[in-house]
Design a protein that fits this description.
This protein is an alpha/beta fold. The chain has 14 helices and twelve strands. It folds into two domains: 183 residues, Glycogen Phosphorylase B (Rossmann fold, 3-Layer(aba) Sandwich), CATH 3.40.50; 167 residues, Rossmann fold, CATH 3.40.50.2000. A six-stranded parallel β-sheet has the order 3-2-1-4-5-6, sandwiched between helices.
């Protein structure tokens, strides 16, 4: 019989639980299914979430950008969270959030942090001095004995995930975590991403398309996302321009309209580079005001071409075919909806995404 990390009796008599995680949009695209299922499994529990900002800094110039992280819009709209801690991007706010969390007297705290897990073991215990604290561990290097001391603050450690076959998806890892915690089983078909887009943001996308003269339109609408957090996962803007020119020269795509998705801090540079090519029916887009601007725009597309970042996973959430440009590393992060996803990987394991050629993408489109 499977023994869960959280004793069933404690789960039954507890009124709340805190999950701690450092989250990117891609992580949450899949993790939200498990938070939602856990909340449904335990309707008596208030589920609280601590979103830790790994870019926390004392540099006040960085705070406006960190404060408006688009993930916060998404988590705030999720009905299965009773409370979300998002004020962790500065040292002072981090300390204030810890004090606020301590006043909740959480009976259960679970850290899902895989980066620097020893630090999060300490954070979890600091928040809940007397509660059940569960977290991740990592075998310390010989020069890291202090990590072992930190792990002693845990009441239980999450067993390491071991794939049962040659292929596994990141959602399999998350399913394993929650099964270990409470015996929760989320079948494969229930792990697909989803996003509930509020009507005002749907109308916002429609208004923008009309302003671009993309609605109504004779041809298809294609969104290309060449940006990711690291340069290794980005695709050059010159490739994007060449791809648009190649597609507009092919039968079936001559009337297509193109949207290039850019992160806000790259908009000026992208406008300069793309502007040199004189592309027809091509506009730049960035979800500068709210997270839901992005999925609302994605949902109106006929095709999405994206590097390995949240956009390619959100394409599955809005049920639009996606061509994903990826490195050979981390294959567990491929889009989960295989019927609506085409994955193009860079030729060699050490290659960055920029090694994916325009010709490879055109072949996938054909």
């Amino acid at each position: 019989m499977h023994t869960t990390l959280i004793a069933p009796d404690l789960l039954r008599k507890s009124d709340k639980i805190l999950f701690i995680a450092h989250l990117a949009l891609g992580d949450f695209t899949y993790l939200q299914n498990f938070f939602k299922a856990f909340a449904a499994q335990n309707p008596h529990l208030k589920v609280h979430l601590w979103v830790d900002e790994v870019r926390r800094t004392a540099d006040a110039a960085q705070w406006p950008h960190l404060k408006t992280y688009s993930l916060y819009d998404w988590t705030a709209a999720c009905p299965f969270f009773a409370k979300v801690y998002t004020q962790t991007y500065s040292p002072a706010l981090y300390r204030a959030s810890i004090e606020a969390a301590r006043r909740e007297h959480y009976p259960i705290v679970v850290s899902l942090a895989t980066l620097r897990p020893h630090l999060y073991a300490g954070l979890a215990r600091q928040i809940s001095p007397d509660g059940l604290v569960i977290g991740m561990t990592k075998k310390p290097k010989f020069y890291e004995p202090h990590h072992l001391l930190a792990y002693r603050k845990l009441d239980a450690a999450m067993p390491p995930y071991r794939p049962t076959g040659p292929e596994h998806h990141i959602s399999d890892v998350y399913a394993y975590w929650f099964h270990q915690l409470s015996g929760l089983d989320v079948p494969a078909q229930a792990r697909f991403p989803f996003v509930d887009i509020p009507q005002p943001w749907q109308q916002d996308a429609e208004n923008r398309l009309s302003a671009w003269h993309f609605s109504p339109r004779p041809g298809k609408l294609v969104l290309i996302n060449p940006y990711a957090k690291t340069k290794k996962r980005c695709w050059p803007l010159e490739h994007v321009a060449a791809l648009i020119q190649a597609m507009q020269a092919r039968p079936g795509w001559q009337d297509a309209c193109f949207i290039i998705n850019a992160v806000p801090q790259e908009l000026v540079h992208a406008r300069d580079v793309i502007g040199r090519h004189g592309l027809q029916r091509t506009e730049l887009f960035s979800a500068e005001d709210n997270f839901f601007q992005l999925p609302a725009m994605l949902a109106r597309c006929d095709l999405i071409i994206s590097v390995e970042t949240a956009v390619m996973h959100l394409a599955n959430a809005v049920h639009v075919p996606v061509i994903a440009l990826m490195r050979q590393k981390n294959p567990e992060w491929v889009p989960i909806d295989r019927d609506n996803s085409t994955v193009i990987t860079a030729p060699h394991r050490r290659d960055w995404v920029k090694a994916v050629s325009v010709e490879q993408v055109m072949k996938a489109i054909r």
